[in-house]
Amino acid sequence: MTGVVTGEPKKGLIKGPPGGEATAVPAGRKRGEFLYFALRSRKFLLATGVLLTLIGIAFIGPMVDTNDPLAQNLLPMRPPTTETGYWFGTTYFGEDVFAQFAHGLRATFFVGLLGGGLAAVIGMAVGFTAGYRGGWVDEMLNMATNVMLVIPTLALLIVISSYLQRSWPEARGIPFESVFVGLTSWPWAARAIRAQTFSLRSRDFIDLAKLSGRRGWKIIAFEIAPNMSSYLFMTFILLFGGAILIAASLDFIGLGPTQGISLGLMMFNSFSYGAALLLGLWWWFIPPGIGIMATVGALYVMNVGLDEIFNPKLREI
Amino acid sequence: MRRYFGRKLITYLITFFIAATIDWMIPRFMPGDPVQGLVSRTGGISPEGSAALVQYYNNLFGLDRPLYEQFLNFWISLLHGDLGRSVFEHGQPVTQAIMAAVPYTLALLIPAILLSWWAGNSFGALAARRKWLDNAVLPVGYILTATPYMWLALVLSFVLAFSLRIFPQSGGYGYNLEPSLTWTFFTDLFGHWMLPFLSLFMVMFGGWAIGMRNMIIYELESDYSRYLEALGAPQGLVRKYAFRNAMLPQITGLALQLGVIVSGNLVTEIVFSYPGIGNLLFNAIKSEDYFLLQGIFLFIIAGVLIANFLVDVVYVIVDPRTRVGMRGGTA
Amino acid sequence: MQVGKSRVLALLAIMSIVASVSACGSSSATASGATSNETYPRAETLYTTGKQWGAPSTWNPLDPNAAMGVVGLQYETLFMYDPLKDVYTPWLAESGTWDSAKTTYTIKTRSGVKWSDGQDFSADDVAFTIGLAKIKAVGSNLWTYVTDASATDASTVVVKFSNPAYQEWAQWLYNSPILPKHIWNDKANEDILKDVNQNGVGTGPYTYKTASADRMVWQKNDSWWAKTALNLDVKPKYIVDIVNGANSVALGQLLAGGLDLSNNYFPGIANIVTGGYGITTYFAGPPYMLSGNTAVLVPNTLKKPLDDPAFRKALATAINTDDIVNKDYGNIVAKSDATGLLPTFSKYVDTAQRDSLGFSFDTAKAKQMLADAGYVVGSDGFVTNKDGSALKLTLEVPDGWSDWMAAESMIAASAKLAGINIDPQHPDYNTVVADRNGTADKAPTFDLIINNDVQIGNTPWTWYDYVFRQPLQVGAAKNRNFESYKNDAAWALVQQLDKTPVEDTATMKTLCSQLQKIQLTDMPVIPLWYNGIWSQSSNAVWTSWPSEKGAQVLPATWNGYWQMGATLMLTQITAVPPAK
Hints:
Radius of gyration of chain B: 25 Å
Shape of chain B: globular
Number of helices of chain C: 18
Number of strands of chain B: 0
Largest sheet of chain B: none
Distance between the termini of chain B: 15 Å
Number of strands of chain C: 21
Oligomer: heterotrimer
Largest interface: B-C, 77 and 81 residues
Strand order of the largest sheet of chain C: 8-9-10-1-11-19-12
Helix content of chain C: 25-40%
């Protein structure tokens, strides 16, 4: 259950391999084995299929339907028809809903990648350092993580967004929104990575690496991280989904970008300005919601699928 | 025990102090003058009236005192439960506005959280055992948990309120009623509550169900489960232990999800114009009322911290290992 | 642990039962409308919205932010002014007369008026209220020209003046509420605005019933004086004003018949009015709404080249206002007269002068005017400053004001055709205000803004005060002369206008003509369009709304409008007989 802010569903969804041990299998065989199971995992294939379809719409859609998503030049409030420009109908203001949907998908994926990616980087940095170093560094980082975890992220983002929108109007663009989201959704990832690093830290091959004189960060980068690679990838996927949801909420409250369009903004416009609920313009707000739901849902299912692929105990044969 | 709670308390107090200070800084370090905006929005006043109003508000908000004095006053008022004054409400106390909105929010959140947690976990546990239920619950659960809160709210509002006209579309209670101890009023209140509650409940339910199902499966695969089975223990006993162990991460999960739930509540209230804290926050953002924003933010943080603390207490009660650990034994 | 499917099923069963019960309860209450259990019977209740942004938080009649209806429904004024007919109707006063020297004004108060707590209304209350204007916090300049106000007997107030400002005094007479002395005497100090005055005592047709975060409820005062004295009866027993939420919600409620009168701005309302939904506006056709204020383009005359009247006039000639009226507003507004005066002041417009000195949209002429004034067109097609530097003017409107955002794009587009480079921006509201007002140390930084602060009223003096006021204000309190235009001759004329008696229309016309000459020649502000008194009504429960063919009163619940005749609207609407 992630809902809006952090990508962390409960522990149930995000699972490291049991006992916190990474599977230490020789690399070549590992990859072949994973690919085999990946292609047989229904969940993984389904999720990948959905994501590819959405990415396809995001890429090809604007090339097929060349309308400017924000141009108010069509007949307003028309339900979907097969006529070009009206595939998803039009808004109260006469904008092309399909064009908005396709462009919005692009923006949404962008936020997910940038925001999720940034959160992943910070989460890894904090998690690895805290887990590997231990001691007072760990204590400090732990405290910082706990503080960030408790503060309701949306409230914090509201405050920062409002502040920046006053002094720095350019900040109301999608890149900056992604950065905020990234900067605030890393705590759970840091905690999870820290826990994993802890358990790996005491393994023999780490001691070997230390004996051979490798520096701390090199050990993290070349010994620990590769062993957790599946875990890290899954964490990234969840952060990706979480970033999308947070950004959609921010847009819906009215703190989204002032230029361009995103799926959350579509819902905001339909609700606030367009009386969509009262005039029955369901085609305006249903598609963006389905878009987000499909993307995030596919990501979660992919996460579970990957879990099964990487973790032999969970595989359903 | 004391050390455990002591550490938690210290973390929470530090968090609160940091959050409150940032919170206090926001309206005062924002570029621009909040009083100016407020006076400008007030229409139809003469130049003399305008000047008088500016002075009145500056005095009311305490903005004509030096900064350090304002900070001190802030903490003193805070300890008295005074969260300052709202620009949006033309100088009326923030605490008053929040207190009027809190009952609605709590009426939504508490039942939604508790019921969805209980129902979700129950369904999840059931699904882990029965394949047919699993095939039904799993996709539904994933879809629900991936659904953005405001979208489900929009859909429910559209289907049940607009199209089918079963429930009202907005508000806390009908505009033709006054709060009174009558059956009419309570059914009306309930009717307005139903859709936002349902919206929150469904999304959260999906998450808990999925999580619990996965945890149960995980526990049933673990060594102690296998061992018990090998020993010939009845299925019921194994499941009982599995369930107990699976509950624990769900409890900590609850604490971690509080921030998410608050945000979900915010957007749900906006869609239904339900007069809770979320709606108030939305209005504060729209009218750039940073004092009100500051008060609400602080209130939310305090609430979340208290809830976290309660969850910690519950966890200690539920998990005997923590108690043993505190007494110095090993789990 | 057998979780008990039965328990889960039981839970579901209970929830569905409760849900259906509540559904029945709420749907019957909202749908049928006339159930006996509701506190406010639908047929006796008027539902309004559009004035109240934010929870009603103060009911102090001296606070300009008082809740909907406080001044008008609860507290009343000495006179009522009708801007459509330019008539002052005695209200709480029976009459008001000047002496021959026009320095003493005698008010005869109406007898038989009672406060809602039973006490008699008398001249003491009037004299007391005039005295309240001495308090600085009240923010009135009354005592700069009033020297004394006292009740000589129970129904006579004598007000003495020195160098009276007749126009402002007339405004005070119809605009300012009378407060009961026996309640406010002890509060008559600098903290008077801090009294929230919930459930106050007034003379008006309604009394306070209840208020909450999302509504304000008034109840009819059955012993209202005007019932016997003027044979006026307000029809709704309850008035429920709903706090503004999302515009879409208000529109939906209006269409569903849950709202009777909405004073919100709805883009595209013209389609709804002509679409057969039973929604009516004051005019059946364009402009649908009465004009309530003038939207002007305000240039910052402290900056180059906006300090050059020739440039400003060229700019005025370059703007296509018809596009804004037609495309942006769908014809629910009207283009402004070149002088900026509202249609209700048309008698003060010197039409011959306006026709010869005024402006209208003409791109070619604008280009010519720029060339004649010495502005050279650069290589990019835009004119440059006289010193050769690139010229780009920013136009700011508050973010989220979608109609103004569209308007500024249209202004920029048409100005571009004449070669003026305008950059339309929409920062948040507070930033626009900050840029517009400047501070005590820094001059205002804006180039161009759109503003519509001057509302409909009893005198054109308000408009000219807005355009020409001196000394220039600075900072948070600034609400006049945003363009920082200094013209001593003009300001002298404005002050002279203020001191002209209201009945002396001849002198007023002469002064206005002179002021118009200065305004049209120098163009300190550029009038664009008349914003409407947004008002759309549902005829499902109440009908006979104000219209040009019916009762010609202002159909608005905004502050300041009750005293301009909107109260009469409540006496003229009729309940629709319930359908069989």
